[in-house]
Amino acid sequence: MRTKAALLIVLVILAAKGSGRENPSDTSMIDGFNRRFLECILNRDHAGMLAMWAEDGVDLMPGEPPLVGKAAIATWLKGVEKQGTGSRVLKEKLEFHDVRVSGDWASEWAEEHQTVQPQGKPPIDGYGKISLVLHREGNGQWSIQQEMWNDSPVPASPR
To answer: Which pLDDT belongs to residue 20?
Structure first.
């Protein structure tokens, strides 16, 4: 009888482990990651953003070839910085959804609304979506393994 009870306990533990349930500390860390991601965008902190990437990360930006590796992403960010000299982000809103954690991997997506004020020009208001695949590095921190952005139409009720 003890053997059956022990086997049942082991099966329940294994079923719970394999059920894809998220560890609350994982989702809490990803929430912190998302706040840092937002801060980097708002502050045009390209060095901070680059630090959030895995060395072999892949960035899939609309209308551009894939950016493979941190060096390619750094070059792209420098171009954005140069092109946007004097501009500032007036508004950045990201609503993250569907955070899923499986071991050292996580995925999520967000709806985005951004308003940028270019120097000497009218503000640019844009909407989009982003998908992130994150990986937990050896130091326990999450990094961006893959990122994909695309445009969205202006919603019927702008956010």
So the answer is: 45
